[in-house]
Design goal:
Blueprint lengths: L10 E4 L3 E4 L7 E3 L16 H8 L21 E5 L2 E8 L6 E3 L3 H7 L4 H13 L4 H25 L1 H8 L1
Antiparallel strand pairs: 1-2, 2-3, 3-6, 4-5, 5-6
Length: 166
Amino acid sequence: MNCPVCVQAMVQENFGIEVYVCESSCKGIFFDHSELQMLDKAGEGMGPAIEAALLSPRHNDANRAQLKCPRCSIPMHAHRFNRDEEVNVDECYGCGGFFLDAGELKEIRDHYMSDADVQAYTDKLVAATPGYAEGMEQMEKEQKHILAIKNFTKILTTNYWKKKFQ
């Protein structure tokens, strides 16, 4: 498997699970589907390979072209990691693999957000969305209106009166 950044051969390393590392060049790491979530918190994984990876300084070129998945060769999608609001990861929507640039695993671990932190961050983003509060207010008004109509039509239906007097 070749690194999607520098196209050098990646080697399989044991982090407690087997992952692919670009040891000879950029120090990027490729995780197969669901492997990253096994190592994203501090203290997860073991061995000299993960310790070496955690010592690599962070390097991420935000201006580079879209990466291709080293597993299935389709374009990967860059986005914020769901447990760290500062780190972009590259995810393959085909095979579910993740590619982390050098130092990003350490950043994810250093800034790992708990479930409460994720909810607070999500709430903050939603609240900052233009028109969100007005849209929610309008939706509540519409729900009340629908409920009022539903209750009114319930009275008008013959089934209601049949059941009431039977």
